[in-house]
């Protein structure tokens, strides 16, 4: 059995940035709760709840980030890399729950509208918008390659979008006294959050279920492997992602009767091709000669 390893990519988002975003979100939450209560704006209060969930999400992100860096042990031979995926599931699930809560509250407010202090609503929304943009900027780079940080980043982006919607709503309330626009905007914001959170949740669950998340064509792999001189067939393939950065591949390779050194050469060719074509960075191959009775791509046991 042979292995191909690649160095784990470290997170590009510093722990300092995570702490800054937590502080910003706690500040925004306090300001928006006070402003929402005084102005009577449901969208401000709902946005404050979302901001508080952001702070919690970022704390979870930070903890998961630290756990994922812990070394491998005899018990956890992969380390704790999936801590970040679990964190992404928690954060996305929280967003989905909040979305349904906001929709319910907004529908109730539509049937029972109340007068809203538009000017205060506008000031508080602008106050919340700026820190959210700063926080999102701090996490943007890390979100590109890390699902855990992407979930936290989306918390902040969705809040920034919420603030923009609230600012627009406040302008309409000030100018036209359209108080119904507040719950309508809340529903639209919640629906947007719901859709995006579902995408993150689905991707996270796919990784936890060890699925072929990139939908790599196994027949294509079979085709190029079986063209290698000395290889009879490839079967019993397993392909999964450990986390955002580590994709694992294992398979049985039936070969002609040959020296072990020759199988090492074949292994290097296969591992290199898998890495170049599909960014698979951990390949485990079991070479055999007339050992298996089943030669399907997927094992049935």
From TrEMBL:
Give the bilayer topology. Multi-pass membrane protein
Keywords linked to the UniProt accession: Ion transport, Membrane, Transmembrane, Transmembrane helix, Transport, Zinc, Zinc transport
What NCBIfam families does its record include? Answer: CDF
Q: Which PANTHER family match?
A: CATION EFFLUX PROTEIN/ ZINC TRANSPORTER, RE54080P-RELATED
Name-wise, this protein is: Cation transporter
The yes or no answer to whether the keyword Nucleus is present is no
GO MF terms here are: zinc ion transmembrane transporter activity
Q: Name one GO cellular component term.
A: plasma membrane
Main subcellular location of this protein, as a coarse class? membrane
Cite the Cation efflux protein transmembrane domain residue spans from the record: 18-209
The similarity comment for this entry is: Belongs to the cation diffusion facilitator (CDF) transporter (TC 2.A.4) family. SLC30A subfamily.
Q: Which residues cross the membrane?
A: 18-42, 85-104, 116-139, 151-174, 180-201
Q: Where in the cell is it found?
A: Membrane
Q: Which residues form the Cation efflux protein cytoplasmic domain?
A: 215-288
Pfam families noted in UniProt: Cation_efflux, ZT_dimer
């Amino acid at each position: 059995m042979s292995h191909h390893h690649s160095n784990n990519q470290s997170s590009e988002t510093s722990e300092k940035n995570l702490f800054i975003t937590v502080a910003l979100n706690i500040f925004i939450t306090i300001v928006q709760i006070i402003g929402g209560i005084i102005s009577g704006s449901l969208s401000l209060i709902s946005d404050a709840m979302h901001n508080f969930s952001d702070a919690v999400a970022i704390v979870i992100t930070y903890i998961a980030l630290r756990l994922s860096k812990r070394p491998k042990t005899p018990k956890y031979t992969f380390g704790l890399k999936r801590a970040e995926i679990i964190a992404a599931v928690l954060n996305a699930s929280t967003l989905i729950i909040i979305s349904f809560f906001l929709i319910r509250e907004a529908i109730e407010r539509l049937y029972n509208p109340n007068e809203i202090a538009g000017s205060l609503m506008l000031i508080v929304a602008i106050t919340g918008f700026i820190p959210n943009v700063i926080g999102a900027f701090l996490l943007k780079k890390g979100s590109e390659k890390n699902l855990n940080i992407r979930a936290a980043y989306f918390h902040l982006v969705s809040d920034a979008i919420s603030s923009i919607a609230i600012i627009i709503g406040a302008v309409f309330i000030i100018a036209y006294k359209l108080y119904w626009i507040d719950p309508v905007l809340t529903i639209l914001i919640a629906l947007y959050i719901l859709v995006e959170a579902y995408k993150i949740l689905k991707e996270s669950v796919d990784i936890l279920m060890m699925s072929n998340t990139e939908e790599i064509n196994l027949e294509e792999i079979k085709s190029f492997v079986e063209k290698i001189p000395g290889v009879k067939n490839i079967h019993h393939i397993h392909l999964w992602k450990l986390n955002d950065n580590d994709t694992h591949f294992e398979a049985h390779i039936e070969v002609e009767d040959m020296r072990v050194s020759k199988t090492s050469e074949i292994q290097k060719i296969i591992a290199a091709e898998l890495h170049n074509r599909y960014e698979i960075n951990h390949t485990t191959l079991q070479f055999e000669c007339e050992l298996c009775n089943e030669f399907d791509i997927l094992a049935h046991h």
